[in-house]
Hints:
single chain; alpha+beta; outer membrane lipoprotein receptor (LolB), chain A; ten-stranded antiparallel sheet; 4 helices
Amino acid sequence: MKNLLRFLAVFAATLALTAPSAADQSDVYLRMQRLNASLKSYQAKVHVAVVTHSFPFLSPTLDGTVYFKTPDRNAVEFKTVPAIANQVKKLVGSLEPASEWPRLYDVTLVSDDGTTSTFRLVRKKHGRIDHVDVTVDDKTATVTSMAYHYNDNGGFIAFKQTWSEIDGNFDLESQTGKVDIPHYNGDVTSTFSDYKFNVDVPDTVFDT
């Protein structure tokens, strides 16, 4: 009897480890991973408006270029480089594509009401971010909002996003963000335009 119980316990544990999760079985999640499958790289213009609600009280606007290269490389170059620009770079189009989520995150489907799906992403490699909550439009399989929750200071960074479809690719049109972390509180609004797809983006762009 003990051997039978031990076998059943091991069998149940094996099933738990090998059974597909609800996220893996989600049609929305699968379509997200196939989104823009033919897109290898792009560059686009970006206009960023920042309003800080903590000292120093600033409201700069920045213009620059965003770059993407598969599988998950993102970069932003601004025409001018005030001190705040280095912080803003971290806030523009920063979430990895869903095709990279299985490699980087443990993904859980929290809910799906038939219109919007909500996922929770937990980094496989522990860092400052505890988890990311992501909402997705079921129809287009695009991320409409995301919120980064920090585990070391209780802060968060949250974004809402709108998309446009250009040449068969879904691309960010605007991104409105709220930053609330120690020593910094502010709003960031980014608009994107003039996309160029599958262009040659040098690797050196991502070294800055």
